[in-house]
Amino acid sequence: MDSEVQLATVPVDGVTVVPVILSGGSGSRLWPVSRASFPKQLWPLISERSMLQETALRGVGSGFAPPIIVCNQEHRFLIAEQMREAGIEGARIVLEPVGRNSAPALAAAALLVAEENPQSVLWMMAADAAITKPAALAEAVSAAVAAAIGGRIVTFGMKPVRPETGYGYIEAGAPLAGLPGVRELTAFVEKPDAARAAELFQSGRHLWNSGMFVFTAETLLEEMQLYAPAVLAAARKAVEARTSDLHFIRLDPATFRQAPDISIDYAVAEHTSRAAVVPADLGWSDVGSWDALWEISPKDATGNVAIGDVFLEHTNNCYVRSDGIVTAVTGLQDAIVVVTEDAVMVTHRDRAQDVKKVVERLRAHGRHEAVAHNRVYRPWGFSESLTAGDRFQVRRVLISPGAQIAMQKHYHRAEHWIVVAGVALVTREGEETLVRENESIYLPLGCEHRLENPGRIPLTLIEVQSGPYLGEDDIVRSGGGEADS
């Protein structure tokens, strides 16, 4: 699936709309692809672009300001690089020192926008939702912006296509005078059981809660002062004490941690008298499980979705994905099979929500596969373990052009670097050496060293570590460049 995601113009003349993208969470129901170190919004699950890139591109066009992205600080360089790849300039990346749900994140974004213009309209989106009908989205955003200018807090209600227990619901009321396409928001309904979901689906008044909101910075801050003053106070202090470097805005850790952990729905939307809803059919999905991804993905004649090096035989209505080895499936129906380099997950589509329980069990057993991939991304590139044994480990390391790893030394391991592509500039005990393809260099235990890619193509090398202890915490840095752990 590769849809046109950009909205060509902002819906209301003379109004600045600031997209605010919340990029938190680990997407554990999409394990083993989505993990805390590299969650689902950073993966290309519905097109050739990542879900974050798809979301950000929806707010590119005349009248849209560069986006504000609120995210985990560990993902900052990945997100900055994805914005660069998508051609999105001027994005402000706000770093949360700790996750506190959507209300504190939105309060911080609104405070930043209000410093420039309190009347600016914020369009809040989750980074990991799919929308396949951009024309309908443009119409819905136009209606929502008009209502937001009038002081409303507007959400988008998706017309349900089936009873669904995995979504919250919105009850829509009477149309709002002078605001075509906008209705009163009568009530929020928690995620229902199957019987209640069937009732809501049949009612004709209830819509899926998409989690998107539109409001002016001023309106949100006024309503937060009324209904969530502790959230606003902590966010205000964190914004006032913020620091900035490169594209990143770092919220003050001590004050942001004081914010209550609460969503914007519970903090404000369920209490405010200004709530409104735009009913819409956007081809929306929160892509909250592998079954949801199967539903929105293009299928073959037998209902299968096959991604990667996959071979199917006598298989129907399945989602099969391999990010590594050849994967053959035969005789299955309504199944999900996902293969990565270090994990395999198989489930019936009806039990796709239970994948989260598997991740919880892996965490309880201390398995690193629950939170991290074998390939670890860093600001300078990535590394991945190829094999390991008693007193040795072999890794593949890729350094991006112009990037370098900090000067460092190790007390318990020696390293041997073999360049297989590109050119390495190695500093060893103050002496610089160029190491070319099919050449190597030895780094004895305890020697100070730094690795840099001075070229214009990626540098790839094989690193052989040997010693009695190979943990990533055996590292002493001397500054310069980005650390490798």
TrEMBL record:
Its EC number is 2.7.7.13. Keywords: GTP-binding, Isomerase, Nucleotide-binding, Nucleotidyltransferase, Transferase. Pfam families: ManC_GMP_beta-helix, MannoseP_isomer, NTP_transferase. One of its GO terms (molecular function) is GTP binding. SUPFAM superfamilies: Nucleotide-diphospho-sugar transferases, RmlC-like cupins. Residues 366-477 form the Mannose-6-phosphate isomerase type II C-terminal domain. One of its GO terms (biological process) is polysaccharide biosynthetic process. Residues 315-362 form the MannoseP isomerase/GMP-like beta-helix domain. The keyword Transferase applies. InterPro entries: GMPP_N, Man1P_GuaTrfase/Man6P_Isoase, Man6P_isomerase-2_C, ManC/GMP-like_b-helix, Mannose-6P_isomerase_type2, NTP_transferase_dom, Nucleotide-diphossugar_trans, RmlC-like_jellyroll. Residues 19-301 form the Nucleotidyl transferase domain. It comes from the Bacteria. NCBIfam families: GMP_PMI. Belongs to the mannose-6-phosphate isomerase type 2 family. This is mannose-1-phosphate guanylyltransferase. The lineage of its organism: Bacteria, Pseudomonadati, Pseudomonadota, Alphaproteobacteria, Acetobacterales.
